[in-house]
């Protein structure tokens, strides 16, 4: 099979117009097998699993992204450009920074500051403020309310570095009112803005950066269900 893209081995039409993207490809497999009817695997290249199935009568897809902006945006670019995807919703974990953050809280990311040089390619005359698509964000907020789960909406920080040597980084993020830190959101928002596509990131707090408290692997899987269901319903309502 000769694919139409460099890193996703699929045919045009194999992928739905809306795609959920967790970092872990095995979580993509979990979402597909747990929530989608008749899921079909459309990609196994580099084990970055992708599936398309039916959710409440509509076609939805889910695919792993890997970690960090370079990996995420490689796949997101091909989904948007080569396969005609209109909506990508990131579902992943994040470290809690704000004072009122607790484990398992859901973050609906309104905007994303970053230390990444990813935006340099766009030659923008200033600093770009990458933001979510408002229609998706509004739907996600309303769905979270209806589920009666704790959620926060606001700005997050996307870092290129997991083990960061910068001193007082987390204090500076908290002082600027940022809610959490991850490694993908800003890249997704920048790419979507550039391509005139729709994007949203919904995150679950898996660890607290100031206390070191965190969820176990099993707790992460169980705690992520609310986030996944919010994302699925948001995508369903948007296509």
Over all CA atoms, what is the radius of gyration? 17 Å
From the coordinates shown, what is the CATH architecture?
3-Layer(aba) Sandwich
Q: CATH fold name, please?
A: Rossmann fold
Helix proportion of residues, in percent? 25-40%
Would you count the extended β strands for me?
9
Low-confidence stretches: none
**What would CATH call the class?**
Alpha Beta
Distance between the termini: 29 Å
- Superfamily (CATH H level) name: Nucleoside phosphorylase domain
In this structure, how is the largest beta sheet organized?
A: 5 strands, mixed, barrel
Task: Give an overview of the whole structure.
There is one protein chain. With 239 residues, this protein is α/β, with parallel strands linked by helices. The protein has one domain: Nucleoside phosphorylase domain (Rossmann fold), CATH 3.40.50.1580. It contains six helices and nine strands, in the order βαβββαββαβαβαβα. The two termini are 29 Å apart.
Give the gist of this structure.
The chain has six helices and nine strands; from the N terminus they run E-H-E-E-E-H-E-E-H-E-H-E-H-E-H.
């Amino acid at each position: 099979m000769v694919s139409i893209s460099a890193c996703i081995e699929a045919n045009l039409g194999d992928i739905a117009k809306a795609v959920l993207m967790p970092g872990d490809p095995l979580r993509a497999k979990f979402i597909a097998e747990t929530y989608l009817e008749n899921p079909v695997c459309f990609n196994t290249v580099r084990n970055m699993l992708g599936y398309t199935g039916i959710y409440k009568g509509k076609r939805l897809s889910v695919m792993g992204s890997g970690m960090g902006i370079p990996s995420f945006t490689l796949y997101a670019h091909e989904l948007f450009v080569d396969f005609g995807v209109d909506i990508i919703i990131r579902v992943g974990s994040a470290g809690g920074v704000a004072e009122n953050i607790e484990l398992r809280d859901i973050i609906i990311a309104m905007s994303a500051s970053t230390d990444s040089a990813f935006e340099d390619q766009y030659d923008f005359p200033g600093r770009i403020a990458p933001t979510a698509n408002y229609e998706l964000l509004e739907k996600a907020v309303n769905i979270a309310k209806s589920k009666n789960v704790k959620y926060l909406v606001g700005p997050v920080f996307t870092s290129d570095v997991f083990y960061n040597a910068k001193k007082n980084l987390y204090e500076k993020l908290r002082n600027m009112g940022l809610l959490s830190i991850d490694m993908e959101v800003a890249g997704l928002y920048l790419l979507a803005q550039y391509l005139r596509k729709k994007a949203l990131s919904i995150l679950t707090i898996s660890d607290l950066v100031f206390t070191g408290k965190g969820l176990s692997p099993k707790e992460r899987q169980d705690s992520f269900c609310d986030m996944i269901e919010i994302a699925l319903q948001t995508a369903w309502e948007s296509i």
